[in-house]
Structures are given as structure tokens and as C-alpha cells.
């Protein structure tokens, strides 16, 4: 086992009081995650280097993670080294899409999203990133072409749709977005919710996080409508509804292209081809619905 092996890297961190035996945890599709017991405590360790092709820069993740803790969203950062962050371990249940969807859970999630958008930035230090999905689409496409991906022939119609979505969206108000609201990034400890994993955090539109939350977890249309009204604290009009649907499509397209990139570049053991197929179908369905309204 070399020092490049994630488990060996987790075990070798300077933070430990002595030899440790990291336990691999399931769920990471950008990082390798481990539980480590040391000094009578449990710690959560994320191992992952910069991933420029995905726009993941660990200095930004570290800054956002620290700010998220200060804003009461996420566990404390206890230690970091290049390619590794050690957090307090959260005892709780990782949510599933089925757990996210009910209205009472959405009512618990919404304050976390708003706190991320408006309170977290008050605690940020150092340079920060912008997360603009339409730039990301163009960059992903260029990376796929550079890699000679078999997906290249699929790109022209997808990029044409991306331009249409950007026009439909129009001007946006910037907030500090989480930008990866998968169910696996929400933990319920029985008393409160935690919002974790700030790999993709950066300034964006609130509509991306809302569309991302609902598209990733297949939230029912009536609950999407409630979420929009509750977030913006006003009745939902046709313009807001249309802009939201455009960004929801963008979220699904981003997940599709992200997975296409991962097919070519990721070394993690994950079925990215199936993930691509799933999100490509969901994206097309959402875009077809948008065009007919």
C-alpha cells in the first residue's frame, strides 16, 4: 500500500495520537471518507486532492467548511493537511430521497439552505469561488473533447439547450450556494439537521440550490411550489416559476455532465455510466416539460 492510497493517507495524518485504523465509509463520489477512532473519540476524515476538471479546489472547501461550522450548519474542522480534512464525527442518520421529500422535512431543510446563502458568507475568509453552472457546462464539454470521450458526439445538442436555459433564467441575485444538495449531504442527529460537504460551495443563484434539492430528491411539484414561496417569502408568479424550472433543468444537466466527466477521469469505484443514464433521462424529461409550458 503506497502513501497515495486514501486509507494510508488517512492513517498517516499528523493529527493522531498514535497508530489508527481508519474505517472506510460508503457514500463519497468525489472523496474517500473514513471514520477514525482516537483518544476515545470518533472523527470523520475526507481524503481528496484538487479536482480541477470538476472545479473542486480544496482551499475553497476548507474555507467554506469552517464558515459553515461558524454559521451553525456543519461540524467543526479539527485538522487539515494537503488533501485531507478531519471533522468532528456526527452521530446521526444520513437522509435518503424518501426522507427528504415530505413537507415536514423540507420545512426543516429550508432554514439550513437560507443560512448557507446569507449567514455563512459572514464567516468566510480568503478567496472564494463562483459556481456558475453555464460556465461549468462549457468547461466540462471542453474537458470531454480534450479527453477524447465517446460522449463528445452528444455534446452539441446539450450545449444548445444550456444556452437556452441561461437565456430563460435571466439576471440573478448572488448568494453563497452549497451547490450539491444530494440527500447524502444532510444528516439528522435526532435533534437537528446538519448540512455537510462543501466541495462545490461558491457564489451562485438561490434557484440552483432549490432546483438541485428538488431534482436530486424528486420532490413533488406541489412541494416545490411551497418551497419557492417559503424561500422568497412571497406568492410564486409565472416568471419565478419559469426561471426556477430553467435552473432545475440546469441542475439536472450539470449532474449529467458531471457524471460524463467522472466516467473519463474518476478513479473511485462507482458506476458512473448508470448515474449518467439516470440523470440524462431525468434532464430530458424536465426540459421537455419546460418547453411545453
Automatic annotation (TrEMBL):
Could you list this entry's UniProt keywords, alphabetically sorted.
Answer: Kinase, Transferase
Q: Which GO terms describe its cellular component?
A: cytoplasm
User: Which organism encodes this protein?
Assistant: Hypericibacter terrae
Where on the tree of life does the source sit, at the highest rank? Answer: Bacteria
* UniProt name for this protein: Choline kinase
Tell me the Gene3D superfamilies matching this sequence. Answer: 3.90.1200.10, Phosphorylase Kinase, domain 1
Q: Which GO terms describe its biological process?
A: phosphatidylethanolamine biosynthetic process
- Any single Pfam family the record assigns to this protein: Choline_kinase
Amino acid at each position: 500500500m503506497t502513501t497515495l492510497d486514501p486509507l494510508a493517507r488517512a492513517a498517516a495524518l499528523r493529527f493522531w495520537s498514535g497508530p489508527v485504523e481508519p474505517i472506510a465509509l460508503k457514500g463519497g463520489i468525489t472523496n474517500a471518507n473514513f471514520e477514525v477512532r482516537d483518544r476515545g473519540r470518533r472523527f470523520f476524515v475526507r481524503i481528496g486532492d484538487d479536482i480541477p476538471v470538476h472545479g473542486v479546489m480544496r482551499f475553497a472547501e476548507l474555507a467554506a467548511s469552517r464558515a459553515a461550522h461558524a454559521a451553525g450548519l456543519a461540524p467543526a474542522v479539527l485538522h487539515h493537511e494537503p488533501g485531507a480534512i478531519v471533522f468532528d464525527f456526527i452521530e446521526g442518520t444520513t437522509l435518503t430521497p424518501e426522507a427528504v421529500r415530505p413537507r415536514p422535512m423540507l420545512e426543516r431543510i429550508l432554514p439550513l439552505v437560507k443560512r448557507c446563502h446569507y449567514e455563512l458568507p459572514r464567516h468566510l475568509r480568503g478567496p472564494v469561488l463562483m459556481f456558475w453552472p453555464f460556465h461549468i457546462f462549457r468547461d466540462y464539454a471542453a474537458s470531454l473533447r480534450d479527453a477524447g470521450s465517446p460522449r463528445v458526439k452528444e455534446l452539441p445538442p446539450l450545449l444548445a439547450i444550456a444556452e437556452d436555459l441561461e437565456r430563460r433564467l435571466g439576471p440573478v441575485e448572488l448568494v453563497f450556494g452549497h451547490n450539491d444538495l444530494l440527500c447524502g449531504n444532510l444528516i439528522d442527529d435526532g435533534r437537528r439537521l446538519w448540512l455537510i460537504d462543501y466541495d462545490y460551495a461558491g457564489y451562485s443563484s438561490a434557484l440552483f440550490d432549490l432546483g438541485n434539492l428538488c431534482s436530486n430528491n424528486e420532490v413533488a411539484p406541489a412541494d416545490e411550489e411551497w418551497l419557492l414561496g417559503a424561500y422568497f417569502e412571497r406568492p410564486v408568479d409565472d416568471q419565478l416559476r419559469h426561471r426556477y424550472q430553467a435552473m432545475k433543468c440546469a441542475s439536472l444537466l450539470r449532474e449529467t455532465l458531471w457524471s460524463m466527466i467522472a466516467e473519463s477521469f474518476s478513479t473511485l469505484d462507482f458506476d458512473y455510466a448508470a448515474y449518467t443514464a439516470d440523470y440524462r433521462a431525468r434532464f430530458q424529461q424536465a426540459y421537455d416539460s419546460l418547453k411545453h409550458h
